[in-house]
């Protein structure tokens, strides 16, 4: 027998290394895919990405490098396709799933991806100050069209040419709901509120999420109001038909949902606020 003491020790060490490597592979954090919002630049969300790297070393983080600046006004379905292709690619390399961390308009893009891409394995979806109920407010509107007025812009947005802008795709004017349902090409579809266009797979796909994290707050200033639909009367999420009828799964997923209402954060600060990132986001990125 040629196994001397040194070889045995060597072999043991080798085995230990294998076991340890296996352990850290099991423990590895899932990749995080970050989707930006309107007007964001290539580097806008780097602070948040770097903070996650710092707290969760070794995490693979992709700030998707697509549709910046004015291109962020591209129609929503085009954005779902473009960002979805990148997320899918990362998912293919990581079949145990990915996390989607999506800011502002990006949160609506991500919801579209989750509902329509049945092969995407998303573990946690973080919607960071996203207008999930649509937009109806002047402050947001003027970021894009300086002279537009919320009361009249439906005349432009609810037309075919108007629908070429992302914002028009989720403009939800409470005073012109019939027109919204008829002309809007995005939000009423992913909300599953158009009876003739209901798609059960949107709901099934959404319910494959492990966790839904919704973050917003009253001092946002841009997502108006922060519950997302500005009106004389704002409905709570739980009072909306979309929720009560569980049209895309929001009610069914409630016990896997975490809602953070944070005060004192302006819209452009969400992804730069360490306390928000550390408290509301990172604990959900396992
Ligand atoms: C998705 O990921 C989970 C682990 O997070 C894994 O158990 C499951 O098999 C994956 N599903 C697919 C379809 O790859
Ligand atoms: C429902 O959505 C899925 C995913 O986008 C699509 O493949 C399917 O064709 C849609 N079904 C109907 C009836 O439109
Ligand atoms: C969460 O809700 C679903 C149905 O809505 C239920 O089947 C499941 O048991 C619940 N899970 C927990 C942990 O309460
Ligand atoms: C950061 O977030 C905290 C709440 O967690 C808030 O009180 C504070 O004002 C925020 N700071 C900035 C600069 O937005």
Automatic annotation (TrEMBL):
It catalyses: S-hexadecanoyl-N-acetylcysteamine + H2O = N-acetylcysteamine + hexadecanoate + H(+). It is found in: Lysosome. Gene3D superfamilies: alpha/beta hydrolase. It is an enzyme of class 3 (hydrolase). Pfam families: Palm_thioest (PF02089). GO terms for molecular function: palmitoyl hydrolase activity; thiolester hydrolase activity. Its EC number is 3.1.2.2. One of its GO terms (cellular component) is lysosome. Keywords: Glycoprotein, Hydrolase, Lysosome, Signal. SUPFAM superfamilies: alpha/beta-Hydrolases. It comes from the Eukaryota. Residues 1-21 form the signal peptide. InterPro entries: AB_hydrolase_fold (IPR029058). PANTHER family: LYSOSOMAL THIOESTERASE PPT2, PALMITOYL-PROTEIN THIOESTERASE/DOLICHYLDIPHOSPHATASE 1. Catalyzes the cleavage of thioester bonds from S-palmitoyl-CoA or S-palmitoyl-N-acetylcysteamine (unbranched structures) but does not have activity against palmitoylcysteine or palmitoylated proteins, branched structures or bulky head groups. Conversely, hydrolyzes both long and short chain fatty acyl-CoA substrate. Belongs to the palmitoyl-protein thioesterase family. This is palmitoyl-CoA hydrolase. It comes from Daphnia magna.
